[in-house]
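PT: before anyone asks, these are the final sequences, not the draft ones from last week. 1449 residues across everything. Please model them as a single complex and drop the result in this thread when it's through.
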Amino acid sequence: MQPVIPIIILALPLTMFLVLGLLGHKMSHRLAGILGTAGMGTTMVLAYIVSFTYFFSGNPSFIDADTHTRLQAVIFNHDWLAFTPSLVIRLGFLLDPISALMLVVITTISFMVHLYSNGYMRDHHGVWETGFQRFYAFLSLFSFSMLGLVVATNIFQMYIFWELVGASSYLLIGFYYTKPSAVSASKKAFIVTRFADLGFLIGILILSFYTGTFNFTDLTSVEVSNGVYQISESTASSVKNIFATSAAPVFMGGSVLTWALVLIFMGGMGKSAMMPLHIWLPDAMEGPTPVSALIHAATMVVAGVYLVARLFPLYLMEEMSLQIIVVVGALTALYAAMVACTQIDIKRVLAFSTISQIAFMMVSLGVARPEFHHGLGYMASMFHLFTHAMFKALLFLCAGALIHAIGSNDYTAMHGLRKHMPVTHITFLIGCLAIAGIIPFAGFFSKDEILTATMGHSTFWYVWMSAVAGLTAFYMFRLYYLIFWWKEHKVPQGHHAPHDQPWTMTLPLVILAVISCVAGFVPMGNLVTWNGHGMFENVNIFTNFAALDWGVASISLAVAIIAIIIATVMYKKENPLPEKMKNLLPNLWRWCHHRFYWDELYMFITHKIIFGCISKPIAWFDHYIVDGAMNGLALLTQKVSYAIRGLQSGNIQMYVWYYLIGALLLGAITAICLI
Amino acid sequence: MELTMIYYLIPSLIMFCCGVYGFITRRNMIAILISLELMLNAVDINFVVFNRFLFPGEMEGMFFTLFAIGLAAAETALAIAIIINVFRVSNSIDVRDVNKMKH
Amino acid sequence: MFSNILIYFVIIPLLMLGGFALCRTDKAVRTVAVVGSMALLALSVWLLVDYIALRQAGETAEMLYTGSWVWFAPLNIHLAVGVDGVSIAMLLLSSIIIFAGSFASWKIDNMRHFFMWLLLLSTGVFGFFISIDMFTMFMFYEVALIPMYLLIGQWGTGRKEYSAMKLTLMLMGGSAFLMLSLIGIYFHSAPEGGQLTWNLLEIAQNDSISRGWQYFLFPMCFVGFGVLGAMFPFHTWSPDGHACAPTAVSMLHAGVLMKLGGYGCFRVAMYLMPTAANDLAWIFLILTGVSVVYGAFSACVQTDLKYINAYSSVSHCGMVLFAILMINTTALTGAIMQMLSHGLMTALFFALIGMIYGRTHTRDIRLMGGLMKIMPFLGVGYVIAGMASLGLPGLSGFVAEMTIFVGSFQHTDMFHRVFTIVACSSIVITAVYILRVVGKLLFGPVQDEHHLSLTDATWWERLSTITLIVSVAAIGCFPNFFEWLIRFTFSPEIFRAIGLN
Amino acid sequence: MESVGSIIVYTIITLAIVVCSVLAVTTRKILRAATYLLFALFATAALYFKLDYEFLGAVQIAVYAGGIVVLFVFSILLTSQPGDNSAKLASKKRALGFIGALSMLLVAGYSLVSRASFLTATASGDNPVMKEIGTALMGTGHGEYLLPFEAISVLLLACIIGGVVIARKR
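LR: through. Structure below.
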């Protein structure tokens, strides 16, 4: 493939960022919006072209004709910074199943959000938000960074764009920069992810030092040998280097590789909001809602999943690191689902739901083993990433529509909106059905694959994750009923009735809803697998049906339906059941409602420990001890000067005295010596 | 009894010590100057005595004394001029009062 | 003598000094300053291009454009000049900052004298970077230090007398160590009976300083330069000095003068005494490692903008010395990159702080807020500077720090590993204090309604800021070029004595 | 062996020197101090005569006794009223000064006396002839003093001018 189109895919959003950022304030709002949207639309079309070419063209550089294995294709790769002859950061474009998939996901969601924002970022009277152009510039910057991240050819390129993504997310969360809560939320997001990135960076350093390369193709290539797809000779040998090196193959109780992988996973935990580094994501909802849809539901937060998937062959070599991923993911999934049941801010419910769903993907990666259905978990994870991006973006955009109409994030202000906003109602319902895993919506297939993979790994985690899936259905329908049913909406005096939104907002909702309905039929098993080898022989529209493990599927379906029924009973009409439930388990409810006091804990650590016990004492030490020592030295010099100044009094008689005493002493000494 | 050097040096020493005593105890500037003259004179005596007793053929000691007398005259003249000037300014010739240039 | 291009780096500032002496109006002074600093910038760019052309043509000498003229024959003191990639990078940095600094001090009291002292300082800086004779190097070093006293004492703010005194005395204290060690090096510069020399290249070639003497001279030399490089615990002149200095002086001082320290540590201490450097590095690694984290933590709780930035400089300059002590090609390259990067971004910081202070008349972040709305240009500039400082890819901080970390990680023993990780952790703390300042200063509601009437940047302030931003972004976007420029200096032969890399 | 007359003369001179010196620094009346100084100087001159340095003795009388002491007297008269006593010294200070001077006397005296055995040379040689003195003062060879002579004459000139300038009434 010619590198022209890939270069444009990366360059166009960057150009848009520069144009809108530097010249935006000279443009009209409408022009800026159109420019940004058109730019992103073009990028989307190009990304589709690239992605479809990769999957379906049959080009020998993309698929091995003999083994039907999809290959990693480096479209271009320019040296950017050479640390040593072998450790070189290159900026390039890597096409393989997951990056092609991500190209589609990112550009689709991003385009939807660009389009949607044209309507969202102005109020009912058509007045544009201040900084509208800036908003589009940041969106473009984010899209650029995210695209750069997924097509990275080496781990350091990924880290570069990883940081850029973090920074643009900072800018977008803090978009309403005059609002103190938005400022502190953006700060929190950046610092927490930065802390995680420290682990990522150290992991990269360890890994690259022992393997001598940054390149993904060297680190993770997979090849066929004796009919079995496995980690390639080159990967294995470069990783074996780690063990062959006599210097420190073991570092603080773990092998170097484990440390490297776990630290890299820590970076992923930060971006993907895994416990305990999840605290930034709920706060990040301070940003405009389209931003939440783009960044905090569909793209940036899955970067961690993507990172683990990208290095999956390496993780396969260290069982322990995969176990850690499973445990972290499972705990996070349950935690987030429980918290989501008690939140009253709709965006926060969605945020915790996102955390929970990403944890699903993580667990799925953690349980993936080549022995079981050719690494089904890996495929399921990517599949869920894809479907989740679609329906979660849909849910967020619906939430945005609601907030736009009501002017509040709190569902207590919403109740019973189904008649006022029919389109939003239907699309939101589709989203809920999808996330709950009701056949035939998108979430059903992907979640079912995940549960199947978990089942194949361990029954305990299977039961655990099924329970979480039930909780998911419950809290999503709780939210749905509380917004659209519960009791009739009364229009407060002086306000106009809530109504559906302009077409720029409606269109993305409809498109995404349609995708959520049909995305489950995409034969992902043939497109994205850990070793590039398709799972199915024949592909048709019912492939996914055919591949289902109906045992698992029917159980999960049953769980979901029961959960929905419970939610219906409790929340469809105004009734005292929720209060009763709350009083049944008051402590649990309180802990969930306060998100298990994680924020307070972090507050304590940052303010009391970091600031109070480290920074302040250091500043004190610097001021009084180090600086004090210097000033003390100066003071001592001055004091001595003052003290001996009296000797040089100008009083000649005193001089004679000194002279006399000196002479006498000398004389006495001489006399004594001569005696 | 032979009048050896020591007989001349001891009075000179006493004279010098008197000068020292005066110099460090008196407060009147003229008195200090007088003590100074005593010390100078004691030194002069020593030069002359050494010349006469140790190097009788030479004249160095004598000439040194000669020049010292000249210098003493010059020095006294200047010192007295300064003292008179100080007196005009501060109406006192007590050394303790002459400290205005110190600060 | 005048056929050597390097000598013009000293002559142009001196001519400018003469020009200022003749000026009668502020306008004339500005003209001279702008023309002169543009000439310097053009000269350094031309030198860069010419240097690259020579290297491309296969020139392999360690230093190019060398020249040597006897100055004081009995002690064999020469005015010896020569540059390699590192010096050229430093010259470029200096001329950019002087250019930006001239615009940043567009309206300052008693302008003629201010610029005269500033240019005297620049003379010292340029002279230092082109010299390869230790004596002239030291002389220029002192020339660069002394005007600082007057510049801060005269044009500063706050406790300026105290700060000026403290800064000068501490740096002079460093100079005392330095002088001792330079003289020590001189007397061991040649084998028994050989002609003693001050010339760095000849000393390095002779390699005649015995191990014992290296052990004695290296720490003195390193501490001497380290004081100017703000090494813990000799950094306390930096916060006070920067806080009180006028804008252009802060820029020049943090941007260029502190680099003299790092450059000297590398060029004299490491270059001439590699054995001791290798053996004693651990002592200074501890100190500089502490510097990095300590400065960052200190910055977290300061409330004065300039103090924050000064402590941030302690942290970043600590990183420079830290990397130098790692003694391998990658880390040393990173150290020089960090010098460039820190020089530019800290100059940018100080320029912006000066501009903000000039408007709000306070530097206390608790008294300011929401400035982004009032002065968007300065606000955006500040955010960019902050992002560069916390190592955002695409700006200079990232490439420098990453090069340092990758280089430092080449050491496999536990001691180096631990300190590398400690140094790495500074990227988080940096983010904390940078975002804290940005959040308080630029974002949030406006704290003081008097600030609402303030204006955004003027054209000269914009020019100054944009120059620096473009430079920062240039390093961040095209690091390979700078890396290539610098790397040649760290050829393996230089470390032959150590056997590293 | 000295003649008795010589010893008597010596005794008188020595006594005069010691007594006058002591009195010159202990009397509280400044004019008396000047007078005792005068006598001490005269005694010194006598000592020079006794040691056969007639020219020197003459110079001593002329310059010191005639010139310097007169200067002293004039200045005393200019700066203090007759009958003015200088303030009584604090006994502590006097005692300290006394101890200082005495200890010096003892140390120096002890070191002199303890080496008295070495200092046994007797006085010899003649009164230098006036012509020799003149030649030595004006010559430039070894043991001749033209340069100091000129220097001191310039010094005296400077001194005169300086004295005039300093003491001049403004």
